[in-house]
């Protein structure tokens, strides 16, 4: 098998790719392979296909995007015509096609984040060919791989509006995308929902058992205890935002106010998104009182 791929459960393979240390998961069934997330470009998607062909004798027939961010979706095009025949079905949450565009507010944020990865990012943007999902999930859908199924579940907004859990029931594997991070702290971007994220994880813990293998968007597989601990971290960030807002601390002073369970440089968008939400609630409440 190609170096770097690990069989985390029977017929379920994970590999961490650079740039971005992004995880790609391949679920092998009798009818074909379901690939979860596709990296950052056509070339990187093509590399995924070549790697999977080294250990799977069936074609990639399904692609699942756990969410819209560029390091998980810009490789989709490699699995569409004319680069693949027949093309794979591309699945995602219903909110993803609308924001899967170079104009999405999250794109500049991630491009800025990745500038230290090297000048090839400019080439990736210049050569971008976006392939949007055409098979859309509201709350729950099932893909039939022939001898096994893959379930796509949406339990609420969190890292983005459209984070999906990819569940492989017969292997007791859950692919989490960036709902869970192992390689570093969770990321709150300009499209995150800091106050809703803990409840989204609570709902998922109903189907994540003590022996479930949870594959994060970046990093090594984890277990339910790790998910619960990260849920508490995310909830504590939300609580700190509420405390600062309630104390009248200005948004610009929030990062340096102390009391954060995460590094100060990770708080920028968590604060911005949290303050905007609380400001809307305050305005709504004031308007209702008039």
Automatic annotation (TrEMBL):
The record's listing under InterPro entries reads: Metallo-B-lactamas, NDM-1-like, RibonucZ/Hydroxyglut_hydro
Residue ranges occupied by any Metallo-beta-lactamase domain in the UniProt entry:
21-218
The family database entries (CDD domains) matched by this protein are listed as: metallo-hydrolase-like_MBL-fold (cd16282)
Its domain of life reads Bacteria
PANTHER family, per the entry: ACYL-COENZYME A THIOESTERASE MBLAC2 (PTHR42951:SF4), METALLO-BETA-LACTAMASE DOMAIN-CONTAINING (PTHR42951)
Q: What is the protein name for this chain?
A: MBL fold metallo-hydrolase
Species in which this protein is naturally found:
Streptomyces sp. R28
Lineage of the organism: Bacteria, Bacillati, Actinomycetota, Actinomycetes, Kitasatosporales
């Amino acid at each position: 098998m190609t170096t770097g791929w690990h069989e985390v459960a029977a017929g379920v393979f994970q590999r961490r790719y650079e740039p971005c240390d992004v995880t790609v998961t391949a679920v092998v069934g009798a009818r074909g392979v379901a690939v979860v997330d596709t990296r950052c470009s056509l070339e990187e998607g093509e590399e995924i296909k070549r790697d999977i062909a080294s250990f799977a004798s069936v074609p990639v027939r399904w692609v699942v995007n756990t969410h819209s961010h560029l390091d998980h979706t810009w490789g989709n095009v490699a699995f569409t015509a004319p680069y693949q025949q027949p093309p794979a079905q591309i699945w995602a949450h219903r909110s993803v096609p609308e924001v899967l565009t170079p104009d999405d507010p999250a794109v500049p944020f991630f491009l800025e984040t990745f500038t230290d990865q090297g000048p090839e990012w400019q080439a990736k943007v210049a050569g971008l060919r976006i392939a949007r999902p055409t098979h859309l999930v509201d709350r729950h859908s099932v893909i039939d791989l022939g001898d096994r199924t893959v379930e796509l579940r949406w339990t609420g907004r969190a890292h983005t509006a459209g984070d999906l859990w990819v569940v492989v029931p017969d292997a007791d594997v859950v692919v989490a995308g960036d709902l869970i991070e192992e390689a570093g702290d969770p990321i709150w971007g300009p499209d995150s929902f800091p106050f809703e994220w803990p409840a989204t994880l609570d709902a998922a813990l109903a189907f994540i058992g003590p022996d479930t293998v949870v594959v994060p968007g970046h990093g090594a597989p984890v277990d339910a205890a790790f998910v619960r601990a990260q849920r508490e971290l995310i909830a504590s960030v939300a609580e700190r935002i509420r405390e600062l807002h309630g104390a009248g601390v200005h948004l610009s002073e929030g990062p340096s106010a102390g009391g954060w369970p995460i590094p100060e440089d990770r708080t920028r968008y968590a604060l911005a998104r949290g303050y905007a939400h609380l400001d809307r609630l305050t305005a709504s409440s004031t308007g209702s009182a008039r």
